[in-house]
Design goal:
The complex is a heterodimer of chains A (about 325) and B (about 800). By secondary structure, chain A is of the alpha/beta class. Helices cover about 40% and strands about 15% of the residues of chain A. Chain A folds into 2 domains: about 5-115 and about 215-320, Periplasmic binding protein-like II (D-Maltodextrin-Binding Protein, domain 2); about 120-205, D-Maltodextrin-Binding Protein, domain 2 (3-Layer(aba) Sandwich), CATH 3.40.190. Chain A has a 5-stranded mixed sheet with strand order 2-1-3-10-4, sandwiched between helices. A 5-stranded mixed sheet of chain A has the order 7-6-8-5-9, with no helix packed on it. Chain B has about 800 residues and is α+β, with helices and mostly antiparallel strands. Helix content of chain B is about 45%, strand content about 25%. Chain B contains 18 helices and 27 strands. In chain B, strands 1, 2, 3, 4, 5, 6 and 7 form a 7-stranded antiparallel sheet that branches. Chain B has a 5-stranded antiparallel sheet with strand order 9-8-12-11-10, with helices on both faces. The two termini of chain B are about 95 Å apart. The relative contact order of chain B is 0.05. Classes of the chains: A alpha/beta (about 325), B alpha+beta (about 800). The interface of A and B includes residues 5 and 75 of A.
């Protein structure tokens, strides 16, 4: 999920218009605020957000009577920041991130849960088994996402030395790390693309009792309470977008590539195809074998308790705190 | 299927044509060998030349790579030295944050080609500077801009360039990255040299990051084009393309990307080799084209550069040369073939004419004119030899004609001789159809036109005279001796009834003038038809087989063949033949008949055939002939094959009347005889004339006995027995006087006058005239003369 460009340059993507026109735009936005929703996926354009791009491209939002504008985050304004600042009304977050935010005092509502499985993996260098690398230097995203890995490191007494990085897999490829965290739909394929061979050097959290859901669409509870109908319609149209993408992956891929090219994202169709395939796979519940689009209370409880046990939370965040009332 | 058959037919036609044309065959052989030599020589040359071209391409590409690498190395070294010096300065004054801006700025001032420089410190290192402190200098148009680069939005200590040297614990170059200038919307490819700064205790305090634009490098590498269709690529540690002819791949794809969907082990192997910083050449398929890929790491950047050269480009010159040479050689060989065919055809032209003339000669025109060749080579020699041969042939044919004519004449003579010889043999079977007491069948098959075998028989005075013989040698001499033998037999047997005497006489005659030392094995037999008594004499011939109730050899004395020695006393033998018995005589052509394995027919087989065959002569001989043919098979007949079979079938007639008369040897008693004869004739119902003639004949015979059978003054008796039977009237005149055979007298030549004829003989002549049969036998010391009259 790391952008290959040095991050600081991306700031200007959202601030390149003259101030006068921006003022006008803000005013217009205010006028439209009742029906317009700014949605910010938690990272740059990629197949991880294919359903939302499809919903826009196929007018599912418009059909639902929601005017949606997708604005990607920057390093200066991560999705959560944008949500808190009111720059956007909806964003995608991982469940653990959402729990963390609620614990820190920002009530959030999950209006659509897309992921049904955990995608995080640990990939070790030199073909070693991650579970046998006690005290290894393991790369972790500087912006979060690594909560479960930290829990696992403590629980399994692996005492990993976490090396926070902002960028992509370069550190690992350069041999500076013993292992790195990766998402099975993104960095995992980036590593393969970088010539890393995957054998017994991959640890999948979902297979070791850490199968905690990830991506979901969140709103601040405050906004949600005021725009329940809008939120609901937005969620339904987004879900429709995902379902269409699952049925028409190649066409969905065309739409994704349109977004990546527009934002000059250094990626390729092969990579995005694999990402979409994996993201869609992760959306299918292991037990029901269905695309359920719901938050599972057991997973919320598992994530919350794991984080609490490892002092990442001050209290246990309950399932009810995350869902619509 | 049909077209295949057509092709096959055409091919056969072509091959047939080539087989007929010596000129094409020879030319093809020469061109074929020339082609082999060319293939070997050119193959070797092409191989060597291709290797040289390949080596040249490798050298050329490697030189380019070395040059680029050296250039990169030089610049990188400068960055490293400058960074090292700055690090030294920072370490001397680690507690003066503001001086870091000076150091950073100085770096770029002293090295205007550097892109930027950061001297970044650990979070909260300077207590009064807050969490972030990074002295950052960058070119800003023509001036330098120095600022504090760290912030919440740019937490430098999470950046690769900061983490890498600290984690690796050594200075290093980052992976190249595209730096986008928002103001100008231009991107710059950068790589950064990062060096960790430690305090005196060795604790990390910060990192110096000096960036260098490598856009020039990417341009330089992109421009490397040793061949028209070659191109260069550059990849980073992660395999990411930083230089590639397909610009969409730059920074967005790695060398392994296409491997995710279409596994390509060669490309993956190249990627790994380049990632490891190896240097070398690989021959592989890139985008469906066979290419040579030359690769080499670019200094310490972790990047690797490769030049991809299509084989078709590298070897295009070589291929053109090769194709031209092959074309020239092919055309040359074609011309060579045509030239040879023409030359050989022209050289062989006289030979063709010679062949035509030879054909004419072969058709019989021996005087056909041969082409005159004034050549001294092999064809000329052949022509001369042929002319000589023609002359010899003409002569030879003339001689052959003569010889053939002579041979034809001889053959004609031989045919005539054969006819004569065959005519000597009895023919027309049965020979005595009027007789029911004898059945005869004989057969002679000559091995050549004329043969030396003979057989003969004739009936005289109720006696069957027969003989079988085999002359030594073959062909004309043997046939002549055979003719002599047969003639002698006839002439001797005409007046001699005893076989030993017949043989002895013949031997005397033949041995007397036998200059050619030829001889005859001969069996002579005389079968008395009335009594079945058979007298015989065997002169060295195979013993006959008697076929009666059983089959067995007739015992024969060992006498020498006829003609070997004069004065030889041949011993007589006799036996009685029972009615129904067949006497089977043969020559050694039967016993010694050979098959292809040179096995002989032998007596055992003869006896086997006889036992399985009825006793009729013709059946025996035919069965024997068939058995011999079957045995001999395809083998040639080596000797004359002669067989003679006689079956004695005498039956005692029914007697109606019988009367006897005994007279002393006194002619005065003749009237008694006349009365006796008249009585008998009357009983026979003969007419008067016949009775008178009969009386005359009997009287003549009896008077003859009375006068000569006994010495003068010696009294003797003459018995006359008369019998009338179904066969006729029979008078048997017997006496015990001295043996005398009146039938043995030579026939009287009645055409001579009484003076000219010898004494005696007229009586027996008279008897023969009157009687139908006369027979003499000397039995048990008695002369027995039988006179027969058929009534």
């Amino acid at each position: 999920m790391r952008k290959i460009l040095i991050g600081m340059l991306a700031v200007t993507l959202f601030y390149s218009q003259p101030v006068t026109s921006q003022d006008k735009k803000l005013k217009a936005d205010k006028l439209e605020s009742e029906t317009t929703l700014v949605f910010t996926p938690q990272w740059t354009a990629q197949a991880q957000f294919a359903g939302y791009y499809v919903a826009v491209a196929k007018d599912f939002y418009r059909d639902a009577g929601v005017r949606v504008r997708i604005e990607h985050p920057s390093t200066t304004q991560p999705a959560m920041t944008r949500l808190l600042l009111g720059e956007c009304q909806a964003t995608t977050l991982q469940l653990c991130q959402a729990i963390e935010s609620i614990d820190k005092g920002t009530p959030l509502v999950n209006i659509l849960q897309t992921s049904m499985n955990n995608a995080m993996v640990i990939v070790s260098a030199r073909g070693k088994d991650p579970l046998k690398q006690k005290g290894a230097k393991v790369g972790i995203w500087s912006v979060g996402f690594g909560q479960l890995a930290m829990c696992m490191s403590i629980k399994d007494h692996l005492d990993y030395q976490w090396v926070r990085f902002a960028q992509n897999i370069n550190l690992f490829v350069a041999g500076a790390l013993d292992a790195t965290l990766a998402m099975s739909y993104n960095e995992y394929y980036q590593l393969i693309q970088a010539g890393v061979e995957m054998n017994n050097n991959v640890y999948r959290f979902c297979d070791h009792g850490y199968n905690v859901q990830e991506d979901g669409v969140y709103m601040t509870r405050e906004y949600y309470e005021k725009h329940r109908d809008l939120a609901h319609r937005f969620a339904q149209a987004s879900r429709r977008g995902w379902e269409w993408a699952a049925e028409n992956p190649e066409e969905a891929l065309d739409i994704v590539m349109h977004y990546t090219e527009k934002d000059n994202i250094a990626t390729n169709r092969v990579m995005q195809r694999m990402m979409l395939k994996e993201v869609l796979r992760l959306q299918v519940d292991r037990e029901s074998k269905k695309r359920e689009f719901r938050l599972r209370p057991d997973m919320v409880q598992l994530a919350s308790r794991l984080m609490l046990e490892n002092q990442m939370l001050s209290r246990e965040v309950k399932y009810e705190e995350l869902i619509e009332h | 299927m049909k077209s295949l058959l057509n092709i096959e037919k055409h091919m056969k036609g072509i091959l047939q044509y080539i087989r007929r044309k010596l000129s094409i065959r020879v030319s093809l052989s020469v061109v074929f060998f020339a082609a082999i030599i060319f293939i070997v020589a050119l193959g070797f040359f092409f191989y060597q030349a291709r290797e040289a071209v390949r080596q040249e391409a490798i050298n050329r590409a490697m030189q380019t790579l070395d040059k680029t690498s050296l250039r990169v190395e030089g610049i990188l070294n400068r960055v490293e030295v400058a960074s090292e010096m700055t690090k030294w300065l920072v370490q001397r004054h680690p507690d003066v944050p503001d001086s870091m801006f000076v150091y950073s700025r100085s770096m770029l001032l002293n090295n205007p080609d550097f892109y930027n420089c950061s001297i970044a410190f650990e979070p909260n290192y300077f207590k009064d500077k807050g969490r972030y402190f990074s002295a950052y200098t960058k070119h800003d148009c023509d001036s330098l801009r120095t600022i504090q680069g760290g912030s919440d939005s740019y937490q430098y200590f999470y950046m690769d360039w900061y983490l890498m040297p600290t984690l690796l614990n050594m200075p290093c170059w980052t992976e190249p990255y595209m730096d986008l200038d928002v103001v100008t919307s231009t991107s710059e490819m950068l790589t950064s040299y990062c060096q960790a700064i430690n305090d005196k205790q060795g604790k990390l305090i910060g990192v110096i990051n000096t960036s260098l634009s490598i856009s020039w490098l990417s341009q330089t590498i992109s421009a490397v084009k040793p061949y028209p269709n070659s191109y260069s690529i550059m990849i980073g540690r992660g395999g990411t393309y930083f230089v590639h002819p397909d610009t969409t791949k730059i920074t967005s794809q790695t060398i392994f990307t296409q491997n995710l969907e279409r596994p390509d082990t060669a490309l993956a192997s190249l990627g790994h080799a380049m990632q490891k910083g190896e240097e070398g050449v690989k021959q592989m398929k890139m985008d469906g084209q066979h290419c040579y890929v030359f690769y080499k790491p670019l200094g310490k950047t972790g990047c690797s550069m490769a030049i991809v050269c299509p084989e078709s480009d590298i070897f295009s010159g070589f291929d053109r040369l090769r194709n031209s040479v092959i074309a020239i050689v092919l055309v040359g060989l074609l011309f060579m073939l045509i030239f040879f065919i023409r030359i050989i055809t022209s050289e062989l032209k006289p030979l063709r004419r010679l062949a035509t003339e030879a054909k004419t000669i072969a058709s019989g025109q021996f005087d056909a004119k041969l082409p005159e060749l004034r050549r001294i080579d092999e064809i000329g020699q052949l022509s001369h030899s042929f002319a000589d041969m023609q002359q010899s042939l003409v002569k030879y044919i003339e001689e052959l004609k003569k010889t053939t004519a002579q041979k034809a004449s001889i053959e004609s003579d031989l045919r005539i001789a054969s006819g004569i010889q065959m005519a000597m043999l009895p023919k027309g079977y049965p020979p005595y159809p009027e007789r029911d007491d004898i059945d005869i069948y004989g057969q002679l098959v000559s091995a050549k036109e004329v043969g030396g075998d003979l057989f003969d028989f004739f009936m005289r005075d109720e006696k069957l005279f027969f003989c079988i013989g085999d002359v030594s040698g073959k062909g004309v001499p043997a046939s002549l001796v055979m003719a002599v033998t047969r003639t002698l037999f006839r002439s001797v047997a005409a007046h001699e009834a005893l076989p030993d005497r017949i043989v002895t006489d013949m031997n005397e005659t033949m041995a007397a003038n036998n200059e050619s030392d030829m001889f005859v094995t001969l069996f002579v037999g005389v079968l008395d038809m009335l009594s079945g008594r058979m007298r015989y004499c065997n002169a060295g011939h195979d013993a006959p087989i008697l076929v009666g109730s059983g089959a067995g050899l007739l015992p024969c004395d060992s006498n020498i063949p006829v003609g070997v020695m004069q004065d030889w006393k041949y011993t007589p033998q006799e036996t009685t033949i029972d009615p129904g018995t067949t006497i089977f005589l043969y020559t050694d052509g039967l016993t010694e008949a050979e098959n292809k394995d040179h096995a002989q027919f032998q007596e055992k087989r003869i006896l086997d055939v006889i036992r399985q065959t009825p006793h009729a002569p013709k059946q025996i001989i035919e069965a024997m002939t068939q058995a011999v043919h079957q045995f001999v098979g395809d083998a040639d007949q080596s000797d004359d094959l002669t067989m003679l079979a006689l079956q004695y079938k005498h039956q005692q007639p029914d007697i109606y009347y019988q009367r006897s008369l005994t007279l002393p040897n006194d002619v005065q008693t003749i009237p008694k005889l006349s009365g006796f004869v008249e009585t008998v004739c009357e009983a026979s119902n003969l007419d008067m004339d016949t009775c008178m003639q009969m009386n005359l004949a009997i009287e003549e015979a009896v008077v003859n006995v009375m006068n000569y059978a006994y010495p003068k003054g010696v009294k003797g008796m003459v018995n006359i027995d008369a019998t009338i039977s179904s066969k006729g009237l029979k008078f048997v005149i017997s006496d015990n006087g001295k043996p005398f055979d009146p039938t043995a007298k030579a026939e009287v030549d009645t055409s001579l006058s009484a003076e000219e004829r010898g004494i005696g003989g007229l009586g027996i002549h008279l008897i023969r005239q009157i009687m139908d049969g006369i027979n003499y036998e000397y039995i048990d010391g008695r002369n027995v003369l039988t006179l027969l009259k058929v009534i």
